[in-house]
Specification:
Shape: globular
Structural class: alpha+beta
Number of strands: 7
Distance between the termini: 38 Å
Number of helices: 2
Helix content: 10-25%
Largest sheet: 5 strands, mixed
Order of helices and strands: EHEEEEHEE
Strand order of the largest sheet: 4-3-2-1-5
Number of domains: 1
Length: 109
């Protein structure tokens, strides 16, 4: 089962493979080659990047919201929050994990 780790501090979305890998190594103390997913969100909480190592190299998945924000829980002293895959999917779809309700999202008319 794949694990996902959310970096709870705001992330500069200009960072790419090297910059995000540095955050994983230095701030999150994660293992890049484990196959785990590392999730980063910008300060405005409108953009998300997920860094994953597949068998042949790194992959970055990138989502930018047209409306609304991503929900980020408080991590306390630790900057890393472990997420279940189902929680990450709910977060991507706009479901609030705290109150189990839909968050604002863009809808085509």
């Amino acid at each position: 089962m794949k694990r996902y780790f959310l970096y709870s501090e705001p992330t500069d979305m200009r960072k790419s493979f090297s910059g995000l890998s540095g955050l994983v190594n230095n701030e999150m103390e994660g293992t890049l080659s484990s196959g785990d997913g590392f999730v980063f969100i910008n300060k405005r909480r409108t953009m998300m990047k997920i860094l994953v190592w597949d068998r042949t190299g790194f992959v970055i998945y990138y989502k930018r919201l047209s409306a609304g924000t991503f929900e980020v829980s408080e991590a306390g002293e630790n900057k890393t929050i472990q997420l279940a895959g189902s929680s990450l999917l709910l977060m991507l779809e706009g479901v609030s994990l705290q109150s189990v309700r839909w968050r604002k999202r863009y809808r085509r008319a």
